[in-house]
Design goal:
CATH architecture of the largest domain: Orthogonal Bundle
CATH class of the largest domain: Mainly Alpha
Largest sheet: 6 strands, antiparallel
Distance between the termini: 44 Å
CATH superfamily of the largest domain: Transferase(Phosphotransferase) domain 1
Shape: globular
Number of domains: 4
Length: about 600
């Protein structure tokens, strides 16, 4: 795509551009025929080429440099951005307070188009981005010059697009919308003044005060006039949901808003841009808790899905690609009796796994055991689904969506009929050491991939490594996985015998915790012996986690390795022991383990 972009710019007459090492193309455009105002003559353009997307960013410059707007103009700028973005079919204006930067941003996923279509796709993106920027960017010049009627400026910009936006359609939809809103808002104003608890909560919470930016007055009802920072700069619907939940935890619920414009990436249902109706309602939440938050999240996802499907149906020109509702209809599955006993292929503490077929694809459906905890169960499944949507690796189990059956939701996963390496160990199935290392190398690559994306698994053990019919391994059960780059107060769970000391104590578990668990799993697989079996062999008593921690840290207990195995595999034993260091910083990272384990594997007959 980088070569195509450079060739495209040359064909358009832009020869004086620079290309940086990170695949960014930089050039400037002189504004011709759009404005007679000399203060707004040139603006820099950046084209960032990424593995899946091309991003075009056009920066607003006045007198040849980025303009820092006066504080008294910020409300007008914010209003102009909101109203302009609602009219622009592709791309959006953004303002970053930290950098005092106003720019136009357009992201397109090119990876799902044929290569021979990339040239025309890039042409359309450049044409649309430059056309929208030149047409609507003049709004901000006029604001600097003293104009304050944003509606007039937006109408002027629509006319300047030269037909890229049809003003008749917009006027009709806008008038209908404003008519509906005016009648409903008038009714609500008489009934619903600003709630005292809500006002006090937002005023006293710096996070809410910054995000929601309320202007309080006696006439103000529980609504915001247009989208503010809460809806700025998120790349997916899931990121929006996280922010809504964070606000909910702070006693404020945002509801009763409608999506008015979306652009959907053609990958995993991610939403690239999404704008909301100009007003939305707030309500005070007296006692938010985990269960009510889960109910709120489920309700929001249902509403989002309904509106997305409606938009896809009625506004197909605004959609790029498709958005798939994650709830899959039961009639898409081959076995109608989903929970039949003969379909059971496995079970654990959380749920039972049933085999099925989805559009000719063999799948496994994990259904929670306890229906009375449906809200909490579904919340866990949603978290696991989110992680799996973020991770796309051949050795990580894939998720396809959800199904509702028997009053419960289940998650539909890739089917692995070869069982787990835990079952291989339990059944004492004979497998050459080289084959075992091949399997564990592939799992290590999956783990290294997760760590590169700042995710930790936190529950690596033999039963969470599944095999397909060709013995291709898949890392599964990502329910405890977390993105460690994000602040998270929740301490991840663990399986005691395979977990690291820092996980037991809850002391900043991270990537090195996965290394410890991987080392224990590798030991279990290659020796056919559970780690620390000598601590539990002669007792039926359940191992206490603090007693186990004391054995690890104070008594320096390690898994036992018989002399014969160590003599035959000294480098493998040394590598495993390096993963069992008590201090996390002394353990090797996945990349170094992969290199050493790869050399050991290559030397085996």
């Amino acid at each position: 795509m980088l070569e195509i972009a450079q060739a495209k710019l040359r064909s358009l007459g832009f020869t004086n551009f620079k290309v940086s090492n990170n695949k960014r193309i930089m050039f400037s455009v002189t504004n011709q025929g759009q404005s007679t105002d000399e203060v707004w003559r040139t603006f820099p353009i950046f084209i960032d080429i990424r593995p899946d997307t091309v991003r075009i960013t056009i920066h607003f410059h006045v007198y040849g440099k980025a303009h820092s707007f006066q504080e008294n103009l910020k409300p007008l700028i914010l209003q102009a951005i909101s109203k302009a973005n609602l009219k622009i079919p592709t791309g959006s204006f953004k303002y970053l307070e930290s950098k005092k930067s106003l720019f136009f941003d357009c992201v397109t996923n090119y990876n799902y188009f044929p290569v021979d279509f990339w040239d025309s796709l890039l042409t359309d993106c450049l044409k649309m981005s430059m056309g929208m920027f030149k047409s609507f960017g003049l709004i901000f010049v006029e604001i600097i010059n003293g104009k304050t009627n944003i509606n007039e400026l937006v109408d002027m910009s629509i006319k300047r697009t030269g037909g890229l936006i049809n003003p008749t359609i917009i006027q009709e939809s806008s008038s209908a919308e404003s008519s509906d809103e005016s009648s409903s808002n008038t009714e609500e104003l008489t009934q619903n003044r600003m709630d005292d608890n809500l006002q006090e909560t937002i005023t006293n919470d710096p996070f809410l005060n910054r995000i929601l930016k309320f202007t309080f007055s006696p006439e103000h009802d529980n609504s915001l006039p247009y989208a503010h920072e809460i809806f700025k700069d998120f790349s997916s619907l899931l990121m929006l949901m996280e922010k809504l939940k964070e606000i909910y935890r702070r006693h404020v619920q945002i509801n009763s808003f409608n999506l008015t414009k979306i652009r959907v990436l053609m990958k995993d249902g991610d939403i690239d841009m999404l704008f909301l109706k100009k007003t939305y309602k707030l309500s005070y939440v007296p006692e938010p808790n985990e269960e009510s938050e889960a109910d709120f999240e489920i309700q929001q996802m249902i509403e989002f899905n309904k509106q997305l499907l409606e938009l896809a149906k009625n506004n197909d020109k605004m959609i790029i690609g498709e958005y798939h509702d994650n709830i899959i209809c039961n009639d898409k599955l081959q076995y109608s009796d989903i929970l039949a006993n003969e379909n059971i292929i496995g079970q654990g503490g959380f749920g039972i796994v049933y085999k099925n077929v989805l559009v000719d694809i063999p799948v496994a459906i994990k259904v929670p055991k306890h229906s009375e905890r449906e809200s909490k169960n579904l919340s866990k499944l949603i978290k696991e689904f989110r992680v799996m949507m973020e991770l796309n690796h051949e050795n990580i189990v894939k998720a396809y969506g959800f199904v509702k059956v028997g009053g419960k939701h289940g998650i539909i996963l890739e089917q692995c009929m070869g069982g787990s390496i835990g079952s291989l160990i339990k059944n004492q199935q004979n497998m050459p050491l080289k084959k075992k290392l091949e399997i564990m190398l592939k799992i290590l690559r999956a783990l290294e991939y997760m760590h590169c994306k700042n995710y930790c698994h936190f529950d690596i053990k033999p039963h969470n490594i599944l095999l397909d019919n060709n013995l291709e391994p898949k890392l599964s059960d990502l329910g405890l996985s977390r993105n460690v780059a994000k602040k998270n107060d929740h301490k991840p769970g663990f399986t005691l015998i395979f977990c690291s000391p820092e996980q037991i104590k809850g002391r900043n578990p991270g990537k090195m915790s996965d290394v410890w668990s991987y080392g224990m799993t590798l030991y279990n697989f290659v020796t056919q012996t559970p780690p620390f079996d000598y601590l539990t062999r002669n007792t039926k008593k359940k191992l206490d986690k603090m007693e186990f921690y004391n054995e690890l840290v104070n008594n320096l207990r390690k898994p036992r390795i018989v002399d014969k195995f160590e003599i035959e595999n000294p480098k493998l034993v040394k590598l495993m022991r390096s993963m069992w260091e008590i201090e996390p910083e002394k353990r090797p990272i996945c990349k170094d383990i992969r290199k050493k384990l790869g050399k050991i594997y290559n030397k085996l007959p």
